[in-house]
From TrEMBL:
It holds the Pfam family Bac_luciferase. InterPro entries: Bact_Lucif_Oxidored (IPR050766), Luciferase-like_dom (IPR011251), Luciferase-like_sf (IPR036661). The lineage of its organism: Bacteria, Bacillati, Actinomycetota, Actinomycetes, Pseudonocardiales. It comes from Amycolatopsis ultiminotia. Signal peptide: none annotated. Residues 1-260 form the Luciferase-like domain. This is FMN-dependent luciferase-like monooxygenase.
Amino acid sequence: MRLGFLTHVQGRGDDLTQVYRNAQELFVVADELGFDVGWVAQHHVPPGGGGLSSPWTFLAHAAARTSRIRLGTAITVLPLEDPVRLAEDISVVDTLSGGRVEVGVGSGASETEYAAFGRDVARKRELTTEGLALLRSALAGEEVRTPGFTIQPPAADFTDRIWQGVFSAPGAEFAAKEGSNLLLNRAAYGYDEATDVVQRPWADAYLDAWREPRTPRIGLSRLVFPAKDRRTALAQIGEDVHQAALRFGERGTFPPGVGVAEALRRFHAFYGHPEEIVAEFERERVLPVATDLITQFNPAIPDHDSAVRALETIATEIAPALGWRPASRALEGVGK
């Protein structure tokens, strides 16, 4: 199992410079702790869940500040991008980072974002399929759109580094048939059952449909926030998770007016003492078939020091208890 963390690049107040610096610092800390992959989510409208509109610019900066951690998007909203131009950005960051890029794509869901970019949200699945085919061709060094044109710099092999975020069993089957790795979100929207109960059949459908000779990868994203006990963790994340659930209720994604406990359940949150979190993960239905555990704090926005401590606890106590070991860098001196 590989260990990752995902940030939506959020913060409190109006000092966005500090928000972005703090998010960059999390990549540095995660690199030192031995995390395998650092992921960012793209959102053009802040209420959509985050504040990062240009993930590849962000990851280029992160590449310069880190040495071994892989750098990925979960996800880039593909229908709102020019796939050829996106392929160029990906190849530049991959070249700068020494081949450390992972590319996660999806269709997004914000009608406002689609309108702002002049795209028809009703065609999001079609646009995603078309865009992914062109993106793959460009990254493979094929001529795209006109004879004689290939992207610069030439991309390395991305055959096993493209991921698709899905929200259904048919979507998972499609990702497998495309030869993409699978990204599963922290919550299954529109269902009353627990997220892992809903998503395990999607993962199984993906594995059943896989036909490539290489081993498929399944990235499992989960809200994980360790603290000395559940009360302390709840004080840090409870209100943020509740408010996010209420916003989701207004959009019809969650039932309206849910309480804090139900909000935490619907976001499938793992929080509290590390031993409690490990015990909960041992009952997690999707984890046994996942190759990548992607931890995140979103929709909670803990203060920066608490976020750093949480990453340290995940890397030193929780993930090792689940069978993970840091790939290379020793942990001595981290956090000093």
